Structure of Ribonuclease T2 family protein:
Amino acid sequence: MRCLLAVVAVAALLATAASAKPVHVQANTYDFLMMVYQWPPNVCATEATAHNCVIPADSHLFTIHGLWPSRNDTTYPQSCCSSCSFNATAVQDLLPQLNQYWPNLFAEEAATDFWSHEYLKHGTCATDVASLDTEHSFFATTLGLSRQLNVDAAFAKLKPSTTTGYSLATVQAAIKAYFGAEGYLTCETYKGQQLVTGFGLCVTKNNFAVFQCDPRVYGENSCKSTSDLFFLPF
Ligand SMILES: *[C@@H]1O[C@H](CO)[C@@H](O)[C@H](O)[C@H]1NC(C)=O
Ligand SMILES: *[C@@H]1O[C@H](CO)[C@@H](O)[C@H](O)[C@H]1NC(C)=O
């Protein structure tokens, strides 16, 4: 919050110097938040050559990727606070939860690299939401939202398998039956199979309610209806 105010203050000073017109800081304008998850076995299969991908022993389901301020037109604000830095000490109390539910699967990096990236790129753009206005609240609120959404329950009937996949329609129907809205789905093709690597839900910025977001957002789904989608087992 403080950095945002500083940006506004600087912008206001510059505006006063240049002209009398009010300046609107557009960087962090957005329409909704996207709660994004990853399916670790699929991420590790598709990233195997690029990363030393390791799934924590206590992760057996979807893990958090991030909470992203997003726009209906599929653009999004990013890195909204150039003077901010990630402070691991500030989220010390959340480390057990972060390590379990929001792990960095890339073992060649520091665990904190993922959180730092997510906070600085996305979190700093959501500081207008009261419960996301500090680094600690960004992580605590996102962890709490994830617990509340309980996305694994939505996928309970879609059994992980290397041989049985599900049509895109079946996957979306399961998501819609549970949340009342479709999901944003990303896939990567690996050994001829479409692996679901990411899953996102659009939630409102005022009360984190899941809603059916703009069709343009679903238009960005990279999972295709032409072949089945797979969730590899852990
Ligand atoms: C990091 O967070 C801790 C705990 O909240 C705080 O005491 C410390 O001053 C912070 N460090 C920086 C550089 O902001
Ligand atoms: C964004 O999309 C949602 C859902 O379709 C709609 O309710 C909202 O008015 C849209 N916002 C803008 C700024 O277009």
In short: Strands lie at 32-38, 63-70, 184-190, 193-203, 229-230.
